[in-house]
Amino acid sequence: MNPSSFSADLIVVPGWIISMASRDEVLRDHAIVVEKGIIKALLPVGDLPENCPVEPIKLPDHAVLPGLVNAHGHAAMTLLRGFADDLPLMPWLENHIWPAETAHVGEDFVRDGTSLAMAEMLLSGTTTFSDMYFFPEVVAALCTKSGMRAQLTTPVFEFPTAWGDGADDYISKSLALRDDCKNLDRLSIAFGPHSPYTVAESSLEKVALYAAELDMGVHIHLHETAGEVLSAVEATGERPVDTLRRLGLLGPRTQCVHMTSIGSQDIANLAETGAQVVHCPQPNMKLASGTCPVSELRAAGVNVGLGTDGAASNNDLNLFNEMHSAALLAKLTTGDPTVMSAYDTLHMATLGGAKALGLDQEIGSITPGKQADFIAIDLSAPSTQPLYNPPSQIVYACTGAEVTHSWVAGEALMHERKLLTIDVDDTLARAKHWRQKISAQ
Ligand SMILES: CSC[C@H]1O[C@@H](n2cnc3c(O)ncnc32)[C@H](O)[C@@H]1O
Ligand SMILES: [Zn+2]
Predict the structure, then answer these.
(1) Cys-Cys with 406: which of 187, 303, 355, 375 at CB 3.0–4.6 Å?
(2) What does this protein's record comment on cofactor binding (predicted)?
């Protein structure tokens, strides 16, 4: 690079760069050069000019990788973490979670719960999240303040809730939010029809039409349990994934969350239509919902991202935990320890998630031209030494507490584990206030 034309506003020189741009690539002695929020180059350190326009941030004990993408969650549900545990999905939802939401969800609940979620996610390496919750306009404002990148999916139900009266009302609010956020670079708006068992076919068809016309994503809980599939077959003669395909709702813009209880025909349906899958291993295990056959899906060419789901069912929003579980669960359920390698698992939590959200041209790998969204992980502690293979350490040995820095579009959101855009003390005080209020009922 010609020193006279060298310009940059951020230069990071880590011990290792796991770019996720090509399989198993781990770069040593390279610098990430960023200008105006975009990755400009990955340069051998020796090619940096002697007098850089900014002081390079040297992190010799750290691996830098793309910011993690939490491809499914309900951020504000942090306020219901530990509220109802050790139950199957439908009794958990119908007898505990939905009554609590009816009693408490409003703008304040969403603001305070989402702030807590954003703090937790940033501290464990997530820079982009997908959210499916009420009052997404409140979440949009919080994202702008915190600098996090997000896909906000707007709830669609057949029945009224605090955010809407019925399917048409939810859909029109979704369209209005899309208009309101059109100039916000770090936000995308997608439809979030809750599930095939809470949204009528006629409403799903409307969502499909708008999504196709406006090129919007669709994010839906699908095949979460064997019971869901069985009830659908009894009621309609069809498996939920077949219903979505018949309604024109299965395609590359559709993000199918959970996908347990699936067989080869379901996998073929997903592969033929290019639909996306989001795997949530820990809530699937905790609610004993079932297993998503991720290695079979990936082998069939289906893209898979990774999500935590909400803190009321997980009970954390830590993608390091989720990666660990995803890798181990895939090996156990297939009886094959060679599936879901550390690299494959990291792929699911970065580029796979970015692709699921339709963001893979912008984020998901450290590639010149993409947004400068990346994190630094300190691998010098006893629990991550000695170091043979950084991806192995990250997936099998890290806890998330090793993440020290994060940047979104080149903006520092965390420095040496201090959050720069979120007031953690205030957020914790508000969470305590909600615990008192919710447990008093
Ligand atoms: C459309 S707002 C989100 C809605 O979904 C509920 N929810 C949380 N976790 C799950 C899950 O695993 N399956 C189905 N629904 C879930 C949440 O409580 C909100 O009401
Ligand atoms: Zn969910």
Answers:
(1) 375
(2) Binds 1 zinc ion per subunit.
- What does 10-29 look like in DSSP terms, one character per residue? EEEEEEEEE--SSTT-EEES
Q: Are residues 156 and 288 in the same domain?
A: yes
Q: What is the pLDDT of residues 113-172, one digit of tens each?
A: 999 999 999 999 999 999 999 999 999 999 999 999 999 999 999 999 999 999 999 999
Ligand-binding site membership of 425 (annotated) = no
Mutate to test the pocket of ligand 1, among 70, 74, 152 (most ligand atoms within 8 A of CB): 74
Task: Based on the fold, state whether residues 383 and 301 are members of the same structural domain.
Answer: no
Q: Tell me, yes or no, whether 379 and 269 share the same domain.
A: no
Mean pLDDT of the chain: 98
Buried b (16+ CB within 10 A) or exposed e, 72-99: bbbbbbbbbbebbeebebeebbeebbee
174 shares its domain with 214: yes
Same domain, 183 and 37: no
The domain of 146 spans 68-357
Q: Give residues (CB < 6 A) around ligand 1.
A: 74, 93, 97, 101, 132-134, 155, 192, 194, 221, 224, 283, 309-310, 313
pLDDT at 1: 55
At 28 the pLDDT is 98
Q: How far is CA 401 from CA 278, 314, 318, 319, 417, in A?
A: 24, 18, 10, 11, 9
* Nearest protein Cα to ligand 1, atom 14: 221
Find the 223 Cα to ligand 1 centroid distance in Å. 14
Do 339 and 383 share a domain, yes or no? Answer: no
Convert the pLDDT of each residue in 31-85 to its tens digit.
Answer: 999 999 999 999 999 999 999 999 999 999 999 999 999 999 999 999 999 999 9
CB atoms within 10 A of CB 227: 15
Q: Which ligand is nearest to the CA of 289?
A: 1
- 346 and 370 co-located in one domain: no
